[in-house]
Inverse folding.
């Protein structure tokens, strides 16, 4: 991975990782789930809109609209809502560890959607080790919140969110080079805001009782944990593989875990520690496989040749 891409990779991971910590803190300030998600997405949409105005973008073609709409639903709206509810039932470190499933989900989707990213054995080994860590985490029953947590519910919500993100990552990679990263990001946030703001108003109403600290957390998440990481995400997808980009998900747990312990007094329980070590081992193995495995013929791929129909819209 080029150095500039690696730097961007780390910035995105830190942004998303600290987003979980800020979410837990905002929930502690009694900010509603729908309010929290809707406001951060709406503010991010305004920021991207300002960038588009500076770039003098006056129209959006069908490809940018289509890709942005898919990402707005599957990479933003559904995962953000589900993960935020998950953070209400488990620690930032626990929920953050489920981001490690993103490379596995993305790699499986990519095999069928991207002919140049087959699921070879070397890649599967690393992904399987990371997934084994998640299984250890679930088997332990540890949530990082002691008796106050509900790890099973948090895990179910997170897994559904990961499934959406995995597909979205492979989908965006399949159309890399056809869209403008800034435009797609803007469409994504506008779609998310149009879906989330009405839901917020119906379910929780106008947020008139947010504290100053609550607003500061919302603004942080909108800028550092939403706007910046997504801009970086789409730019990276244009230069490196979908599975490599999805490895951002392996850094998010480390940031969320350490930050949750230091800033929120969350617990580093045995299941989280052991599962986390396996997840990071999987990260290393998967990254090495992605850098060293050369393109292989269809018969060498683990699941055979992706069908032509799977490569079409």
């Amino acid at each position: 991975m080029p150095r500039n891409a690696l730097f961007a990779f780390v910035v995105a991971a830190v942004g998303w990782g600290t987003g979980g910590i800020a979410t837990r803190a905002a929930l502690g300030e009694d900010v509603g789930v729908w309010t929290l998600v809707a406001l951060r997405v709406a503010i991010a949409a305004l920021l991207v809109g300002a960038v588009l105005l500076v770039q003098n973008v006056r129209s959006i073609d069908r490809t940018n609209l289509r890709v942005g709409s898919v990402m707005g639903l599957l990479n933003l709206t559904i995962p953000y809502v589900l993960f935020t509810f998950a953070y209400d039932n488990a620690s930032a470190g626990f929920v953050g560890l489920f981001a490690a499933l993103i490379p596995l989900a993305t790699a499986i989707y990519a095999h069928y959607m991207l002919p140049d990213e087959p699921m070879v054995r070397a890649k599967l080994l690393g992904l399987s080790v990371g997934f084994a860590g998640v299984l250890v985490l679930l088997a332990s029953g540890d949530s990082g919140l002691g008796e106050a947590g509900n790890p099973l519910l948090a895990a179910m919500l997170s897994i559904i969110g990961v499934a959406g993100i995995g597909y979205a990552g492979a989908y965006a990679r399949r159309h890399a080079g056809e869209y403008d990263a800034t435009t797609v990001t803007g469409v994504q946030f506008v779609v998310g805001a149009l879906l989330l703001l009405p839901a917020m108003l119906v379910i929780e109403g106008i947020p008139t009782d947010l504290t100053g600290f609550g607003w500061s957390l919302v603004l942080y998440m909108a800028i550092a944990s939403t706007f910046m990481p997504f801009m970086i995400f789409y730019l990276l997808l244009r230069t490196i593989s979908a599975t490599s980009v999805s490895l951002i998900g392996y850094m998010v747990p480390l940031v969320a875990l350490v930050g949750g312990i230091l800033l929120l007094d969350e617990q580093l329980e045995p299941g989280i520690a052991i599962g986390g070590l396996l997840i990071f081992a999987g990260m290393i193995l998967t990254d090495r496989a992605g850098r060293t495995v050369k393109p292989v013929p269809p018969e060498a791929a683990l699941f055979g040749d992706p069908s032509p129909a799977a490569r079409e819209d």
About this structure: The chain has one domain: 3-311. The chain has twelve helices and no strands.
